[in-house]
Amino acid sequence: MFDYPALIALAEVLRTGSFEQAAHALHVTPSAISQRIKSLEERIGAPLVRRGQPCTGTETGQRLARHAEQVRLLEQDLALAPQASAERARPAVIRIAVNADSLASWLIPALAATPSGTLFDLEIDDQDHCDDWLARGDVWAAVTANPAPLAGCDTLPLGRLRYIATASPEFIAQHFPQGVTAQALATAPSLIFNAKDRLQAQWAKLATGTNAPLPAHTLPSPQAFLEGARAGLGWGMNIEAMARDDLAAGRLQALSPQPLDVALYWKTLRVMKAPLAPLTAAIRKAAAEGLISPFQRA
User: Is 202 helix (H, G, I), strand (E, B) or coil?
Assistant: First the structure.
């Protein structure tokens, strides 16, 4: 059995990035934190922390820290923390993988509605790749576009996030005078979130029936997508709810009436189902208010 105070110290060092900050959070001295980490490393027989600014964890250190956070969350659900030491009673951390567009458009109310006493650590990735974090055990839950079952996890359909291909009126007049064609898309600058972002390519295939090459600016921010489109930098798949005011005011126009809907799912580790239940309930409520119902026709 692992030394629990040592695991807590490790988790806190990796969370805060500092032995001093971890000591402050746990109300002990930095030397006590250092001794606990050293003892744990000697027992494991491997380094757990890369000393630096900030401190980071080795692969083994990160796995142990995640284990400590899972135990803390389970204890909190079992109401053990109030009777435990001050170190165990500190807020649990829930690690979630989520796409940036969900975070920007509908997820925050769910996090805010979760009972106090919980902290969130979010990993941002493309919706088609959030499953990878869950499969590796790096997070306890994920908002993902992959409906396929994942071993040891429960899957809940949330709804569809709708995107509209948008650009400024001036950009459309310059680059799409004959409408959306494969030839126009091959020269008109597009906007992408990162190299994993396939939304623009998917919409272009729907609109033209071809896999047109898309020159692209990389803007890793949903807000930057809106601002870039408004400024005439390029065209991109903007979240309908976020672009609604700009579309109504004429600052943005749709390249065509063809939307692109992305179905989203909430996946959680089955072993963490009970402690994650309040968050899951809040996620379902926020999704019902911010997404198109999974049972509603397009």
Answer: helix
